[in-house]
Design a protein that fits this description.
Layout (H helix, E strand, L loop, with lengths): L8 E4 L5 H12 L3 E6 L11 E5 L5 H11 L4 E6 L15 H23 L6 E6 L12 H20 L5 E6 L20 H10 L3
Parallel strand pairs: 1-2, 1-4, 2-3, 4-5, 5-6
Amino acid sequence: MNTKDIKYWVILTGTTGLLGQTIKTELMKRGFGVIGLGRKKNNFDKISNFQYFKCDISNKEDISKLFEKINKLNIFALINNAGIQGPIGMFEENNFSHWMESIQTNFIGPVMMIKKFLKLNIDKGYIVNISGGGATKPMEYFSSYAAAKTALVRFTETLSIELKNKKIKTLAIAPGFLSSDFHKPILEGKVNLPGYIAEEIIKKFK
C-alpha cells in the first residue's frame, strides 16, 4: 500500500499523547490515512498510511509549512486534539506568559489549523475539536485552560452555523478525565477509556 491507495486522510494534532495515539490507531484500523502532528521528534515507524510531522500548532509558520507539504493529499478531516494544561493556581498568582501560552495552544492554535483546513479544496469533511471540563462549568485554579476550552466550544458552535450550507461538519467532544500524563498532576485512578472517545469521534464520520 502507498499513499495513493489511501482514499481519505485525517489531520490529527497531539498524536504523541495517550488519546492522540488511540485515535490514530482506531482511524488506521478503519482504513484512514493519518497525518500526525506533535512537538516531539518522529519516533514512529514509517508506514504508508501514517505520516508524522513535527509541528507546534501555536506557531503560525509551522502550520503554514505543514499545509504546503500535505496539500496534495485528499484531506477529509481535522481533529484538534493537542493541548496543554497551563498554569494551575489562583489567576492573580499565575505566570502570565504561561497563562497566554495555554490560550495560544488550546484556542488560537486550533483556530489557525481550521483556517488553513478550510482553504483546502474539500468536497466533504469534518472538523473535530477536543474540548474539556473547563468548557462546561467554571474551573477554579485552571483559568487559562477553562477560558481557552470555553472559547473553542463557542467557536465550534459558531462555525457550525456558518458552514451549514457546506458539506463540512463541526464537532466539539469533551473526553473527560483520562488516565494520561496530561492529568497526572490532578488525578490518579481509573477514568474514561481513550478507546471509547476515539470510537465516538469516528462514528461521526459518515
